[in-house]
Specification:
Order of helices and strands: HHHH
CATH topology: Four Helix Bundle (Hemerythrin (Met), subunit A)
Radius of gyration: 15 Å
Mean pLDDT: 82
Number of domains: 1
CATH architecture: Up-down Bundle
Structural class: mainly alpha
Low-confidence stretches: 1-5, 122-137
Distance between the termini: 12 Å
Length: 137
């Protein structure tokens, strides 16, 4: 049975960094998507700023000596974060809604990868238990 919850409506398991990161990326993608289709410049600007903050946290975590990620993966994530930074600053500069598309896609694809489900792959059953995140739309 499919759940009516989306990944950003159910809080992630606080003991699972992957679930937290995936949830935050999906929520940010949703916020960017909604505000980029609206006419409220302030809401769009705020969604861009929150996404930038999220990626700053990701950058800090990945660059940390304590990060368990392999060196090559760290480098790839940091390169991707530079793309996110550049696109975000460009969007903040002119508030061009089309610039959000790349940010939305990056967030969604990274979140799906963290969930272990590439885009277009069959849906998996959501994890059971308290605090579990529902991945089905």
């Amino acid at each position: 049975m499919k759940s009516s919850h989306t990944p950003y409506e159910t809080l992630p398991d606080p003991t699972s960094p992957r679930e937290i990161e995936s949830w935050a990326l999906m929520k940010s993608a949703r916020d960017l998507d909604l505000t980029s289709r609206g006419s409220d410049d302030g809401a769009y600007r705020e969604a861009l700023r929150r996404n930038l903050l999220l990626w700053t946290i990701i950058q800090t975590d990945v660059a940390s000596d304590a990060s368990p990620l392999p060196t090559e993966l760290k480098a790839n994530i940091l390169r991707l974060s530079l793309v996110v930074d550049k696109r975000t600053f460009a969007a903040l500069g002119d508030l061009d809604r089309a610039k959000a598309t790349l940010l939305i896609e990056i967030n969604r694809n990274i979140a799906l990868g963290l969930m272990g489900r590439p885009e277009g792959a069959p849906e998996q059953s959501p994890p059971a238990g308290p605090g579990a995140v529902s991945y089905s739309a």
